[in-house]
Amino acid sequence: MKIMLDQPKIESTLRDLPPNSQAIFTKILGTIQEALSYVITTTLLVRVIMVAAATIICKLRKPYSILYKIKRL
After folding, report:
1. What is the 3-state secondary structure (H, E, C) of 25-69?
2. Which of 7, 25, 44, 56 has the highest count of CB atoms within 10 angstroms of its CB?
3. Half-sphere exposure of 12 (CA within 13 A, CB side)
4. What pLDDT, on the 0 to 100 scale, is given for residue 58?
């Protein structure tokens, strides 16, 4: 994973590869970056939806739950 963030290392690795492997290496890196981007975006979106749903549920629930009744006694 460190290599994905180290641009000089990527460039040196790309230069060290034979010409026919350079295209494959570039394609693999692009695919990995797209996959990581998708995973991060999807995870963030799911978390936002879950927090929004939890907030709505908390706002709509009745305050007269068992804990509320016990607390008042």
Report:
1. HHHHHHHHHHHHHHHHHHHHHHHHHHHHHHHHHHHHCCCCCHHHH
2. 25
3. 5
4. 84
Q: Which of 33, 41, 37, 43 is nearest to 3 (CA)?
A: 33
What's the predicted TM-score (pTM) here? 0.59
**Domain boundaries in the chain?**
17-72
Q: Rounded distance, CA 47 to CA 59, Å?
A: 18
- Dihedral of alpha carbons 5, 9, 12, 16, sign: negative
d(CA 38, CA 60): 33
Give the tens place of pLDDT for each residue, 31-58.
998 999 999 999 999 999 999 999 998 8
